[in-house]
């Protein structure tokens, strides 16, 4: 959903602590040697492997729901917190397979999209249509970082208070999703203007408040219908559960999903450097505005799972399956070396990236 409607734009070296001015970033020419190597060195690892995708997604969902049940049923605050933390991390990982669904070939993993929506997307009120045909716009060569990019805001060039606001709004996401599916979608059946408004403004996992989604058509429109139906029926069941088992289980579940949303928003905050003011960028400039957090750090495995610790590399190779990104990074690093364009997108970790963006927002304009 576009949740940053209250954020106000402000004015705006790949050095670790100094933000590169937007104008310089736009002027970066493509590093053709890097782009060529990225394609040539990774052809043999570009196929999605069902033996990795299925156990990972199913295992993450199982652990997440088991821990969620444990958090609801546990006696004692300490045990509840332990179960809740496990539930947040596991459900977060399961949910982020929505990113893979937008990139893998439709014939690569038969049944995977349906199973993911049934087990994860619909139960978490985030079916795959909310990302499909949206995230690919973010990867479009002429859209990235522009006002037509649904997933871009120049956060590093905005006011300092935009960062905490960016994170805090995610807390309300579960309630917003429930209202959307249980109230607004059914209301849209009888009121076409509401239906159009909900689709255009509240049917995409986007952060750009100016983004308006086009109405779905064809096969995608039919898929949207069934996913919307399933999500709406599930939202009715969630509301009805309050009258059967009380409000506490739903409150705990929503608390856990809120934590998942905040964690994802935090990852989004450091997925890019957010230094572009709306001009079209070269592929290399887009790469350098994106972030890799490669090993030896282990924490990115938790806060940027399913390959998202290699987000800059993902912008070079959008169709590369998540399980191959680590090997692709090793090959490119070995081939290109540490004093090259490729190495400049690597950053030490979460705190470093947060500090970099925070310092940028507090600089005089």
TrEMBL record:
Domain of life from the UniProt record: Bacteria
Signal sequence, start to end: none
One GO CC annotation: membrane
Sequence ranges assigned to domain Fatty acid desaturase in this UniProt record: 81-338
Segments crossing the lipid bilayer: 62-92, 165-191, 233-263
Keywords: Membrane, Transmembrane, Transmembrane helix
Pfam families per UniProt: FA_desaturase
Keyword Membrane: yes
Molecular function terms from GO: oxidoreductase activity, acting on paired donors, with oxidation of a pair of donors resulting in the reduction of molecular oxygen to two molecules of water
Biological processes annotated in GO: lipid biosynthetic process
Keyword field contains Transmembrane: yes
Xref: PANTHER family: DELTA(5) FATTY ACID DESATURASE C-RELATED, FATTY ACID DESATURASE 2
This protein's name: Fatty acid desaturase
């Amino acid at each position: 959903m576009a949740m940053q409607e209250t954020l106000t734009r402000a004015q705006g070296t790949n050095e670790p602590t100094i933000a590169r001015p937007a104008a310089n970033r736009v002027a970066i020419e493509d590093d053709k040697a890097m782009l060529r190597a990225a394609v040539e060195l990774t052809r043999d690892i570009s196929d999605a492997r069902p033996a990795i995708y299925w156990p990972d997604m199913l295992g993450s969902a199982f652990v997440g729901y088991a821990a969620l049940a444990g958090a609801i049923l546990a006696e004692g605050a300490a045990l509840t917190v332990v179960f809740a933390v496990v539930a947040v991390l596991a459900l977060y990982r399961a949910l982020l397979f929505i990113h893979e669904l937008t990139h893998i070939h439709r014939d690569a993993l038969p049944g995977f999209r349906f199973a993911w929506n049934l087990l994860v997307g619909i139960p978490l009120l985030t079916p795959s249509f909310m990302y499909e045909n949206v995230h690919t716009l973010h990867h479009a060569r002429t859209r990235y970082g522009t006002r037509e990019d649904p997933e871009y805001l120049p956060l590093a060039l905005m006011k300092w208070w935009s960062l905490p606001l960016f994170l805090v709004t995610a807390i309300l996401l579960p309630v917003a999703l429930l209202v959307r599916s249980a109230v607004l979608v059914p209301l849209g059946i009888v009121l076409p203007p509401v239906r159009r408004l909900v689709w255009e403004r509240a049917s995409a996992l986007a952060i750009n408040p100016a983004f308006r989604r086009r109405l779905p058509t064809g096969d995608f429109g039919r898929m949207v219908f069934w996913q919307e139906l399933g999500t709406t029926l599930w939202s009715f069941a969630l509301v009805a559960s309050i009258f059967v088992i009380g409000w506490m289980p739903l409150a705990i579940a929503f608390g856990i999903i809120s934590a998942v949303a905040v964690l994802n928003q935090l990852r989004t905050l450091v997925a890019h450097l957010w230094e572009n003011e709306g001009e079209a960028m070269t592929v290399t400039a887009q790469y350098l505005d994106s972030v890799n957090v490669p090993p030896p750090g282990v924490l990115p495995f938790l806060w940027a799972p399913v390959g998202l610790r290699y987000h800059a590399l993902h912008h070079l190779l959008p169709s590369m399956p998540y399980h191959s990104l680590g090997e692709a990074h090793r090959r490119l690093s070995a081939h290109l070396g540490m004093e090259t364009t490729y190495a400049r997108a690597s950053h030490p970790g979460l705190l470093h990236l947060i500090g970099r963006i925070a310092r940028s927002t507090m600089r005089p304009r």
